[in-house]
Amino acid sequence: MVKPEVYVSTDVETDGPIPGPHSMLSFGSAAYLADKRLVSTFSANLDTLPEATGHPSTMAWWATQPDAWAAARASTRPPEQVMVEYVAWLEALPGRPVFVAYPAGFDFMFVYWYLMKFAGRSPFFHSALDVKTYAMALLGRGYRESTKRNMPRSWFDPAPHTHVALDDAVEQGALFVNMLADRTNLLQNPG
To answer: How does DSSP assign the chain, residue by residue?
Structure first.
């Protein structure tokens, strides 16, 4: 029997634009089934990489977000411990994990780099699903027009965007499964 897909909505908070020279400060994942059941969550704040530094423009942005910064820096842990635990969490989910993010290119780059460096493998393999690209397909608009302000309000749950990784992962995960449900309704009830 084929296991269902589990949509692992993930958000990262970082101190710069790329991993290695900069660190992933915090990340959160919310695992959803297609029927919108939130089956599990995972989050951690990470120690910074010893050789990394904060990027000036990113650090200037963080200066405007003191509550989110404090949340991302509380109870940090070594990435070599966290990423091994994260792999175990992913592999214990009730299905095949699919990485989902908004934007996937940024979040996946950090998570994949950290997984490979500290756990030696990625249960996501080499792929990620981008919420904005999926919106582009559903809306029939160009990529740059497929922003949240152009999405139907019915796709959004009343959840805040706090820049706390797990909060934002839950928020964007609900958005994604609402989009899945809308697509299913359209396919079942065309016209």
So the answer is: -PPPEEEEEEEEEESSSSBTTB-EEEEEEEEE-TT--EEEEEEEEBPPPTT----HHHHHHHHT-HHHHHHHHTT-B-HHHHHHHHHHHHHHSSSEEEEEETTHHHHHHHHHHHHHHHTS--TTTT--EEHHHHHHHHHT--GGG-SGGGS-GGG--S----S-HHHHHHHHHHHHHHHHHHHHHHHHS--
- Angstrom distance (rounded) from CA 168 to CA 166: 5
Structure tokens at 78: 């070594």
CA–CA distances in Å: residue 39 to residues 4, 58, 173 = 13, 33, 12
Are 17 and 23 contacting, i.e. CB atoms less than 8 angstroms apart?
no
pLDDT in tens, 47-70: 999 999 999 999 999 999 999 999
**What would the pLDDT profile of 3-20 be if each residue is shown by its tens digit?**
899 999 999 999 999 999
Q: How far apart are CA 161 and CA 128, in angstroms?
A: 21
Question: pTM, whole model, 2 decimals?
Answer: 0.94
